[in-house]
């Protein structure tokens, strides 16, 4: 309400819905917004609208569904919105996209984008080395021109059915991370690790945020983006949210274009990576390091309200054991055989020329993940593994179902690597349901999130879970991870596989660690297959999540962040994982610990540099304050004698006594000084007060004229206009000399104590120095044992990151 555009980045379950609803209603009450719109995920429409009405029972709420925009009902819907006095309009993401901006507004924006690309092309054309970049920019320009031609040539029967016609002037967009794939034109198009996707959803939202801000004369007002995970996978996503929320700030800082932003807050990292065809190693450049992170977050926090779970200390149920429980599954013989075949495939990629379309390391890693979940995803004819994840999960779910039968507790099961399938095709979902039914669970108490296709079906399913009618709900992170508020009876959450992104872990676990859960204690269970990629995947994702959490919480010690890549594994890592070698997992832990201690070392070094500068400057400041204290001691004694008798002020060899007489004389001095202002500042002695000289300082402006007393030290009088005030400030100045002396004495004592403390501090080494050194030694040993630090011919890798961090 006060700051305008806001990124509402509160932890999962922190009550973002209530905040957005209350803010929009208050804006309506204060007439700062006329028609607020709330945009929510498709399956959360009825749930969000019900929450809004529960908070404000008398509110006039219009809930827009996809059916409202079907056929001739579009005109009726637009008319209802445009002419109605609504407190809130609630619609889904897909409905929001069905109401595009007008062709004129969109065309003007595309033309501006084309002009920006043309300017970038002209700048690059002067450099003969930029031919490749120019070609990339020309391709982008051609794409935008085609888009513009389609827009201008398409027939628009309902041209009035556009977003502007609704009269919406305030926009709250929930789960905004779904619109992070915003277009950008950049010279870094060939740099790996840089998200360059361009989704229609993000483009549509970007246009509407620009239009909304235009309603407020271009100020940062009218837009609220809410999500618990603004950084889903890469710190580069911060720039996207800045473009949505603070475009003027980026423009004023010269960071509007991504290349300028990346040059300020990012670095490309060049290192040896295995080639996609597995034939050897190659130097690859990635946008993988983010620098000046505290400065970036300072700018970002101007429009962001970041509240992590640790900051809020929400009343959520306790997690059993204070951490997720890991259920380790023994690999079957068929899984061991298959993983050995993966090693052979990786060996073949390394030694032979293999078409990457036929086989590559990414395919090997993906198939390894599928096999770790269930071998039947690789070969549906394989028999069920009684010790595999599906069987283990079924036993855990059944035991908890049995133990909590009296209270009708519910459980969630997440699985992203498989989906329900029709016919004879194998699916982990059907296999797990069959196992549960075989152990005695009623079929009607087991449900798939995929079976609820419409918004109303999802709302009904969620209600059944909250009521205890459905006690086991299976789903994937995209379908069940965001906005699924079924926490009331949840007692356990099962994760059959590891998601790709850190934000997915938070969204999954936020379903159960949430306000409104009746259970005092809940459990999160992760299933890991030995000798597979599972443990390594979890370690990597959680390490990355920890770094993102540190940055988002405002940790000033982190000046730089390295992005962690999980897409592919090297041949040596595949071989180590396949052999069941626990050292690959140990190495992941060692790497994470080294990164943590390296951050602490960076903070320690920065503090040490600051301490050294302080120690160098303190002796001079102490000496200066000692001289000042001696002068103030002498002046304080003189001030005491002046105050002991009636005040007499001598000005231009004439004595003045009494408040009125002294005040008028001082006023005449000040008036005369103001009349004599010149280009250069100066001071003049005009008389005396006891043993003090009385002077006037004449600056270069009228407000820079003031009186002062000078004894062993100078004492400035506060500038005043009237005679009585000038007399009072003269008395205050004389009386203030003794307190000034006392302050100086205390300051001098503090400086001496600080110098002693800093001198002692500089003699202390980094407290984790030995631990960091031992970790680096262990990391080298593990790299040597796992053969991770060698290229094809056995030479050392290009970069030695641990040594650089600890140097």
Give a quick summary of the entry.
This is Helicase C-terminal domain-containing protein. The chain is an alpha/beta fold. It is built from 27 helices and 23 strands.
Structural write-up:
- It holds the Pfam family Helicase_C.
- This is Helicase C-terminal domain-containing protein.
- It comes from Piscinibacter koreensis.
- The structure is a single chain.
- A hairpin with a 2-residue loop joins strand 18 (about 650) and strand 19.
- Strands 3-4-2-5-6-1-9 form a seven-stranded parallel beta sheet, sandwiched between helices. Strands 10, 11, 12, 13, 14, 15 and 16 form a seven-stranded parallel beta sheet that branches. Strands 19-18-20-21-22-23 form a six-stranded antiparallel beta sheet.
- Helices cover about 50% and strands about 15% of the residues.
- It has 27 helices and 23 strands.
- The longest helix is centred in the last third of the chain and has 62 residues, at about 585-645.
- It has four domains: about 1-100 and about 160-255 and about 290-310, 3-Layer(aba) Sandwich (Rossmann fold); about 105-160; about 315-560, P-loop containing nucleotide triphosphate hydrolases (Rossmann fold, 3-Layer(aba) Sandwich), CATH 3.40.50.300; about 645-750, no CATH class.
- With about 800 residues, it is α/β, with parallel strands linked by helices.
């Amino acid at each position: 309400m006060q700051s305008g555009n806001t990124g509402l980045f509160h932890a999962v379950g922190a009550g973002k819905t209530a905040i957005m609803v209350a803010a929009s209603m208050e804006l309506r009450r204060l007439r700062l917004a006329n028609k607020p719109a709330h945009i929510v995920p498709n399956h959360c429409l009825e749930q969000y609208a019900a929450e809004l009405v529960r908070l404000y029972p008398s509110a006039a709420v219009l809930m827009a569904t996809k059916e409202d925009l079907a056929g001739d009902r579009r005109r009726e819907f637009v008319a209802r919105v445009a002419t109605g006095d609504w407190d809130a309009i609630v619609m889904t993401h897909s409905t929001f996209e069905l109401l595009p901006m007008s062709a004129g507004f969109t065309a003007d924006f595309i033309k501006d984008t084309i002009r920006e690309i043309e300017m970038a092309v002209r700048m690059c054309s002067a450099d003969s080395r930029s031919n490749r970049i120019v070609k990339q920019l020309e391709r982008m320009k051609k794409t935008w021109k085609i888009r513009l031609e389609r827009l201008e040539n398409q027939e628009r029967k309902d041209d009035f059915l556009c977003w502007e016609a609704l009269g919406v002037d305030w926009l709250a967009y929930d789960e905004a991370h779904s619109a992070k794939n915003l277009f950008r034109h950049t010279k870094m198009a060939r740099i790996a690790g840089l998200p360059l996707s361009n989704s229609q959803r993000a483009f549509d939202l970007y246009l509407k945020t620009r239009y909304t801000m235009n309603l407020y004369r271009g100020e940062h007002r009218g837009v609220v983006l809410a999500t618990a995970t603004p950084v889903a996978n890469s710190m580069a996503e911060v720039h996207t949210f800045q473009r949505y929320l603070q475009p003027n700030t980026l423009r004023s800082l010269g960071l509007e274009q991504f290349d300028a932003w990346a040059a300020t807050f990012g670095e490309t990292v060049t290192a040896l990576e295995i080639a996609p065809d597995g034939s050897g190693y190659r130097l690859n450049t990635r946008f993988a390091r983010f620098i000046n992170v505290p400065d970036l977050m300072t700018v970002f926090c101007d429009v962001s309200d970041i509240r992590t779970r640790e900051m809020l200390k929400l009343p959520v149920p306790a997690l059993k054991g204070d951490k997720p429980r890991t259920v380790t599954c023994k690999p079957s013989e068929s899984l061991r055989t298959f993983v050995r075949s993966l090693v052979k495939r990786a060996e073949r990629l390394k030694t032979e020329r293999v078409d990457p379309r036929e086989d590559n390391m990414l395919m090997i890693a993906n198939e390894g993940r599928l096999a770790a979940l269930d071998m039947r995803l690789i070969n549906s004819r394989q028999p069920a593994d009684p010790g595999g994840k599906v069987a283990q999960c079924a036993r855990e779910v059944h035991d908890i179902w049995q133990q909590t039968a009296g209270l009708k507790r519910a459980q969630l099961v997440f699985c992203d690597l498989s989906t329900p399938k029709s016919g004879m095709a194998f699916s982990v979902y059907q296999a797990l349901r069959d196992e549960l039914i075989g152990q005695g669970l009623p079929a009607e108490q087991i449900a798939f999130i995929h079976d609820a296709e419409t918004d109303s079906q999802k709302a009904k399913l969620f209600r059944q879970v909250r009521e205890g009618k459905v006690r086991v709900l299976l789903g994937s992170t995209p379908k069940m991870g965001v906005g699924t508020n079924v926490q009331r009876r949840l007692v356990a959450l099962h994760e059959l596989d590891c998601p790709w992104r850190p934000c997915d872990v938070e969204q999954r676990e936020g379903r159960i660690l949430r306000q409104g859960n009746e259970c005092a204690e809940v459990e999160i269970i992760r299933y890991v297959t030995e000798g597979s990629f599972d443990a390594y995947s979890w370690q990597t994702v959680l390490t990355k999540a920890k770094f993102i959490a540190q940055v988002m919480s405002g940790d000033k010690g982190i000046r730089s962040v390295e992005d962690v890549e999980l897409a592919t594994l090297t041949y040596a890592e595949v071989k180590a994982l396949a052999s069941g070698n626990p050292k690959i997992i140990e190495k992941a832990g060692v790497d994470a610990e080294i990164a943590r201690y390296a951050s602490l070392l960076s903070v320690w070094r920065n503090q040490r540099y600051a301490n050294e500068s302080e120690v160098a400057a303190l002796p001079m400041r102490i000496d200066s304050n000692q001289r000042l204290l001696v002068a103030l001691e002498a002046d304080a004694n003189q001030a005491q004698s002046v105050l002991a008798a009636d005040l007499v002020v001598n000005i231009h060899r004439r004595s003045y006594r009494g408040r009125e007489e002294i005040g008028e004389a001082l006023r005449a001095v000040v008036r005369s000084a103001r009349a004599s202002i010149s280009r250069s500042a100066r001071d003049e002695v005009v008389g005396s007060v006891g043993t003090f000289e009385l002077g006037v300082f004449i600056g270069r402006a009228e407000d820079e004229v003031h009186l002062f007393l000078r004894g062993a030290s100078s004492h400035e009088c506060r500038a005043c206009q009237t005679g009585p005030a000038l007399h009072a400030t003269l008395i205050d100045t004389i009386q203030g000399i003794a307190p000034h002396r006392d302050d100086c004495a205390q300051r001098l004592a503090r400086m001496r104590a600080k110098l002693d403390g800093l001198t002692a501090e500089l003699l202390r080494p980094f407290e984790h120095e030995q631990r960091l050194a031992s970790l680096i030694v262990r990391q080298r040993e593990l790299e040597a044992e796992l053969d991770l630090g060698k290229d094809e011919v056995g030479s050392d890798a290009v970069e030695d990151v641990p040594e650089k961090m600890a140097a």
